[in-house]
Amino acid sequence: MTHIFKTILALIAVMMFGSASTTAGPFASNRITPVSQHGQLSVVGPHIRDQRGQITSLAGPSFFWSNTGWGQDRFYTAGAVETFAKDWNAGIVRVALGAQNDGSFLQDKRGNSARVKTVVDAAIANGLYVIVDWHSHQAERNTAEAVEFFTRLAQSYGHTPNLIYEIYNEPLDTTDWDRTVKPYAETVIAAIRRVDPDNLIIVGTPSWDQHVDKAADNPIRGHSNILYALHFYAATHRGELRHRAEYAINKGLPLILSEWGTVTYTGDGSVDVASTHEWMRFARRHGLSHLNWSVSDKAEGASLFKPGASSHGGWTERDLTPSGRLVRDIMRNW
Ligand code: MG
Fold it and tell me: Could you tell me which of 142, 76, 66, 51 has the C-alpha nearest to residue 104?
């Protein structure tokens, strides 16, 4: 890529996302934040390690699909991020950039980009890590759009220690790792690495991120700081999925629980407290970071909030669902 072309791309990125600010405002305290403590992350063997080489396990919430008009896009606010940072003790948050279905980034670039920028800037201001996830089940259908989006994101935020890329939320059970997911990932990773040499990149695995064994048998080579997504829903997934995860971990595959729920895989049903605690013990044992689905007040079991909760944070006990209370407890004590 010529220098001129890179400059033009950088300008487009600034127009789209603005430039990232890491300057603390006049009222910023000297609060120790997750990012001030851990700094630039890297992947060593099966673990995330911080700037001092310590194994680092972060906990936080995942926002819901960002799609315009779906209703949960209203939670993409600076106030929500600040409350997760200061009241819930989150170390990380996840943006679920809708990249399929009505109102997604593919239809409404402006609205969805603005929501990404709001949450990423707020994460930086509060010293949190932030995953930006291409929330699609068929990302290989829009590889060019993903390359363009992540290139611009890297140009805007790749120099900050905060940003983590998640390039494919959950491939379907019919999507082959070797022939489809891995080649897609290699294309998008190469584009990110042309701009940002070091920030972590999360790759989805087949069957809604439950076949990490497929990635363990044929991992991506030639790139550093790559993680693989393992997703679970506590009322559906149990020992069998943990055994499959351990197969991958034993082969040295670095995993992240970039999305998990306390309920069934549908996002609904009642909270399975015992299974959730079993999974959290698993996460601690293996030093895994995890992000709970989801920041939502939709009437379903996985939602953290009851209908009508404020879009801008400052929530109290009254605003929380049974899942919200359990998840807040887990985060506060992580
Ligand atoms: Mg970087």
Answer: 66
